[in-house]
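Section 5: illustrative case.
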């Protein structure tokens, strides 16, 4: 059993418990549930923004603690000020040290799209995402069937949420494309063993239909790579660990974007 299998088992138990504690009706009464989510495409393609989805992540199963000192509101505000097109916030507690309150604090502090970064395995989590202030949900092809991807995408769109599908190889991509997606992300990290290879993005970019935003995820630490990925056809770039491993993630992103412009 790999780490992804373990995460899914934990997540199923977590969701079943959450359903007993907080009903869908209670989620629908949440402070953010009735807000209109931002449109990811508008921000991703805005010329004044960078195309970067900057991530707030405290730890990971592969690296352990990355940064447990930075405050989510401060970091995410700095990300937005540095030109982030969207911000990813981990809400998984057991493996990534996240929490729903992180997403809600980021929402209160920002006027850019927020991605609920988690392992979605139940429609209930879509209602959570909307209630906590998310604009985007992540669907990971490696842990979902094509039918689940289709069903969850339709439900997300009915709630006004943007949908980012994450794939790791051609087989996942070809079996997972459905009409209700907004973006398709190529994760350069193998979730089974957490190794990374940026070549995965270059190999798969032309296989993504042009009607979807194209996002490269993970293994992006050099500003020069951004320009190469743009030339290859990518619209967006999810970067987390590269910023979060520093004492000041916001300043790290500002420096990164300045170097993007200069190269």
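Designed sequence:
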């Amino acid at each position: 059993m790999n780490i992804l299998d373990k995460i899914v088992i934990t997540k199923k138990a977590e969701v079943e418990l959450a359903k007993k504690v907080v009903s869908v009706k209670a989620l629908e009464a949440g402070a953010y549930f009735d807000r209109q989510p931002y449109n990811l495409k508008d921000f991703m393609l805005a010329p004044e923004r960078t195309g970067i989805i900057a991530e707030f992540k405290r730890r990971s199963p592969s690296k352990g603690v990355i940064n447990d000192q930075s405050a989510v509101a401060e970091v995410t505000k700095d990300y937005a000020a540095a030109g982030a097109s969207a911000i990813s916030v981990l809400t998984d507690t057991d493996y990534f040290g996240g929490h729903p309150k992180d997403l809600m604090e980021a929402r209160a502090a920002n006027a850019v799209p927020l991605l609920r970064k988690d392992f979605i395995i139940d429609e209930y989590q879509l209602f959570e995402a909307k209630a906590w202030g998310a604009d985007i949900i992540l669907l990971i092809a490696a842990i979902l069937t094509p039918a689940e991807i289709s069903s969850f995408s339709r439900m997300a769109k009915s709630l006004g949420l943007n949908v980012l599908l994450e794939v790791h190889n051609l087989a996942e991509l070809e079996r997972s494309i459905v009409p209700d997606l907004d973006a398709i992300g190529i994760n350069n990290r193998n979730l089974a063993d957490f190794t990374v290879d940026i070549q995965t993005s270059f190999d798969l970019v032309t296989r993504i239909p042009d009607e979807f935003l194209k996002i490269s995820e993970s293994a992006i630490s050099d500003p020069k790579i951004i320009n190469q990925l743009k030339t290859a056809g990518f619209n967006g770039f999810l970067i987390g660990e590269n910023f979060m491993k520093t004492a000041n993630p916001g300043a790290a992103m500002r420096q990164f974007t300045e170097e993007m412009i200069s190269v």
